[in-house]
Every structure is written in structure tokens, then in C-alpha cells.
From TrEMBL:
Classification via PROSITE patterns: NUDIX, NUDIX_BOX
Entry similarity comment: Belongs to the Nudix hydrolase family.
Protein's organism: Nocardioides pocheonensis
InterPro entries: Nudix_hydrolase (IPR020476), NUDIX_hydrolase-like_dom_sf (IPR015797), NUDIX_hydrolase_CS (IPR020084), NUDIX_hydrolase_dom (IPR000086)
Source taxonomy: Bacteria, Bacillati, Actinomycetota, Actinomycetes, Propionibacteriales
Name of this protein: NUDIX hydrolase
Cross-referenced SUPFAM superfamilies: Nudix (SSF55811)
Keywords from the UniProt entry: Hydrolase, Magnesium
């Protein structure tokens, strides 16, 4: 146990103790945690090698919550940071156990988009697309769902923030899984129906200039010209589900 700041200590255990197995090591770590808190520390943390699965299990079974990855912190190596606070709910209680699980179970990013349609003078269907400031291709309006936020409410919030349009999101049209790409982890994209409007709705748009460069209604031909291929596939799949001959309600990268 090494003090690293006022009220904060860092705990580690020797490899020979870990070699004795999960149970004996956890027993020792739990005793060390109790002593640290009784000595007045309010936080105890552990740095664990991401490749050491046994140490990760020891930290978890000892009641330490996973907080994230500290990059290049320990002799130039990445480490998983586990920690426990003196006032954390005991893991023996349901709330404490759920919080412990929540700290290390996988979390997947959710993105909500709105499919806003219009019909041109010739009757052809058009969809509202945004040219974004942080990438070259165009996309449907929407954005990342905040923690604890309803995806359906999130897309209405994003459309109002980015375009100044107060549109209520309709039913879910498509769920599309996005594989890891371009530095992003994988995500689930939920496309909601934004209804059919007259193209004059563009006159009401107030762009959030930090993110939106341009907004317009586009034909399907223009969709394939302006959008990334996976975005175009997702959009076509979503449109099909609003037709008389719907396709699958779940796709992966639009397929």
C-alpha cells in the first residue's frame, strides 16, 4: 500500500500471492482495503495490466470498480484503473453489486438519426441530409445518445440543436449495427421516422455552424453521390421499411 496523494493510496500484490489463486489473493486484498479505509484513506486504487486477466478478476472480486484505461502511466505501459471509495455501497448489497457489474460490463455507443422526407415537384422522394463540418460525406441528422437518455428523445434533441427544427421522432424504422471504423468503436444506429414535409421546411432551419455546413433535400441518386457507402445503404434500407414492401428491421452496415 503506497500513499500517492492526501487520502489516496495505491495497492498492489506480489506475483507469488496471485499464484496461490483467486480466493487467497482476494482475501488479502479485501483486508488491505479495510485497513486503508480505517487508516483514513478515502480512495484506494489498483493499476492492472490489460493482458493480466487473473489480476482483473482479483480486482473485481475484491470490490474495486473499473474506472478506465490510464495510457502510458506505469513505466510507459497502459494500465486499467480499478478503485474503491470509502463510502461506496458495500458489494454485498444489491445496489453495490449492480454498480460493481456496471463498472466493467461492456457498453456500446448508440447513435440516433432522423429520416425526414419530402416529395419534389415531380413526385420523387427526397431525404434531408446534412453536410457535416468534421467529415467530407453527408449524413442524416442526429447524433450520439447521452448516458441515461431515451434514443427517441435524443434524436429530436439533436435535430433541434443542430437544425433548429422542433420535430417529434416517430416510430423506429431501422436498427443498424456499425462495425469499428476510422478510429471509432462499434455502435448501434437507430433510425427514427421524421415524417414527410414540404421542402419549404428548409426555410426554418437554423444551422449549428460548429457542426453543420449545409442542409438540403436530396434524391436517392444524390444520396449515393454524397454519402459514404454504408450511410447510403442504411438510408435505402430505412426508406424501404417505410414502403409497402418493407425489408429487415435490423441491418449491419446497411446490409
Amino acid at each position: 500500500m503506497t500513499p500517492i496523494a492526501p487520502g489516496v493510496a495505491r495497492l498492489s500484490w506480489p506475483s507469488d500471492l496471485q499464484a496461490q489463486g483467486l480466493g487467497p489473493t482476494v482475501d488479502v486484498v479485501r483486508v488491505a482495503l479495510a485497513k486503508a479505509f480505517s487508516d483514513g484513506h478515502h480512495r484506494v486504487e489498483v493499476l492492472v495490466d490489460p493482458d493480466d486477466e487473473v489480476a482483473q478478476r482479483i480486482a473485481t472480486f475484491s470490490g474495486l470498480m473499473r474506472e478506465g484505461i490510464a495510457r502510458k502511466i506505469d513505466a510507459g505501459a497502459d494500465r486499467i484503473v480499478y478503485a474503491r471509495l470509502a463510502d461506496d455501497t458495500p458489494v454485498e448489497e444489491p445496489m453495490g453489486f449492480r454498480r460493481l457489474l456496471n463498472s466493467f460490463l461492456p457498453r456500446k455507443r448508440a447513435i440516433s438519426q432522423m429520416l425526414i422526407r419530402a416529395h419534389g415537384e415531380s413526385g420523387e422522394q427526397r431525404v434531408l441530409l446534412c453536410q457535416l463540418t468534421y467529415k467530407n460525406d453527408w449524413d442524416l441528422p442526429g447524433g450520439v445518445v447521452e448516458v441515461g437518455e431515451s434514443p427517441q428523445l435524443a434524436v429530436s434533441r439533436e435535430v433541434e440543436e443542430e437544425l433548429g427544427l422542433a420535430l417529434e421522432a416517430g416510430p423506429l424504422v431501422l436498427t443498424d449495427w456499425l462495425p469499428p471504423w476510422g478510429g471509432w468503436d462499434d455502435a448501434v444506429c437507430l433510425v427514427f421516422d421524421g415524417g414527410v414535409h414540404h421542402e419549404s421546411i428548409l426555410e426554418q432551419v437554423v444551422r449549428q455552424q460548429r457542426e453543420i455546413r449545409a442542409v438540403r433535400f436530396c434524391t436517392l441518386e444524390e444520396v449515393h453521390e454524397l454519402c459514404a457507402d454504408f450511410t447510403a445503404r442504411r438510408l435505402v434500407a430505412a426508406l424501404r421499411n417505410l414502403s409497402d414492401d418493407p425489408g429487415p428491421s435490423y441491418t449491419e452496415s446497411g446490409r
